[in-house]
Amino acid sequence: MKVFWMLVFLLVHFSLPAQQSYPGEWWFWPDYTLPGRANNYPGPRILPPETPKTTIGQESLPLIFYGEEPSERVTGFIDVASLPTEGFTLEMWLVDHVDQPIGVLAALKSKYTPTEPAWLLGIYDREIVLSVKTDASPFAQLLTYTVEKKAWKKYWTHLAVSFEKSRVLLYLDGEPVEEMKIGKLKPFDPAEMEVEVASYMKNEPYMDLGNMLKCLRLYETKQAAGDIKNSFTRLQGMVEEGRLFPARFHFNAGPYLNYVTQRSVNVIWETDRPSYAEVYYGKALPLTDKVVVDMTFSPETKGSPGKNIHKLVLDDLEPGQQYFYNIKAIDENGNVIESGNLTFATAGNENTPFSFAVIGDTEARPHINDRISKLVWDERPNFIVIVGDLTDGGMEHHKFEWNYEYFQGMNQLTSRIPVFPVAGNGEQDLYWYEKYHDLPGKDGYYSFRYGNAEFFMLNSNLKKEFAPGREQYMWLEEKLKNSTALWKFVAHHHAPYSADENDYGDSWKGASALGDPGIRKIVPLYEKYKVDMVFFGHLHTYQRTLPILEDKINEKNGVVYIQGGGGGGNLEDFAPSRAWFSAKTYRGHHYFTVTVSGSRLEFKMYDSEGRMKDLLDLVK
Fold it and tell me: Please, what are the domains in the chain?
């Protein structure tokens, strides 16, 4: 069984009226932390309940759901003897942001015999299942319901079932949708039964139960329709604000490092409520240097999305030096949370070898982000380039995609390794992208120098700006013309050259443009000023081109284009025939690293299992 954290809240964390008592509320969260001595999770550790250790044990029989065995099972988190047996309500808060069928259920079932559960509520893909065992029949009564309407904010679903004496009511997103008449619930022996929560992730094998099921709540009384609607509304408010837990003081983003130089690094973090912070840092433990980040505890900061994001520049640092830092946040009631001791390193001088990782399209799969984060951490790169679509669509109205997805999977890595991102179409309004980063320049494009290389980070959402005479085009030409770097790299989101199957014409029906013609308008600048490599994403596959000059292969003077959109988005595919420029293609989640030592460059691409799939050496 996968390890994940389960936080148990009891009684009144949602300020429920007195008649709405419930034996338990459980919040599920994957354990996405780095291994070994880097094992930090910002804020108070959220640990599962203690489980008695037995010398010899046996797991109870699993439930088969839509033909699948469970990929993860959780039991032992509630005393079955305390369960209500007449009028009660079961509630689930779910998010499903993947394109493969997955499912989750909660059931009261036998520990020892292969009998039908006393009750079960589950969902698989768009099918809701409710099963109830009564005195009236030896077989369980079954209710199924197909979800036809779109989920709230496209991905969130609120399920509730209210058990009464003679019927059960099924609620979807706060509204009653189906009813089933039942007899008296069948009595059970608590010693023989257990409550189990299980996930069914055969189609997303790295996915945790806590990626889909965020909250399970059991009320010991039947809830009225208005109460269920109000519960859904409160949960919606949490998601709108990007809060991960309803009552616990916590970091819901960061600490997150970006834009490191020889003398400074930018640190960003967000708390779920107004707070001020004491940031401790130094070259060795214990930490002696301190910066205080103030916040006014004003009414307008409470419950306002984005008002609790803090940005700090740690400067006057030494080049090529490892540093430790710890953020202690304090709310207006004196509650304290700490990030724990984290690390980063400043950039070295021009002659210092360095390595960086490139990840693209992290999007909607924190479980893939988690795998890639751990593999990248093992490489210990100096920094990370993310080539856009950090989120699937984390624009102003979808803040949750940052808090519940991007930071969930990536924060273990980005709290220690600084990030240099570009915006993708998932961040095209730049609203949360700019709030969660501290970058130079304007309109989402900038440049930076690291070692003997210069990086030119473009905003390809402004596609018209990639044409000659436009502002971003002229900015890039001026930067390239004045660059003295030995190595020149460009990063943006959209594809100049790509053998994708259908983004540039359906290649299974006819011709494809093999890339975006609008983006290709800027390619003459790359060729004129001898850019070495161009990194991009957008297409969720891997492709490295042969060196290209003037739309022909030129091994001596051409530019290499690398498509790296495999950080977590829904996988795409290639055209049925090989493109004229292809050196290597791969369909699967991945990342790659670039190591520069003087005039030598080593490029390696790895899949999500850490297996190397591509290798390239260049010498100037």
Answer: 4-52+60-241 (2.60.120.200), 249-347 (2.60.40.10), 350-619 (3.60.21.10)
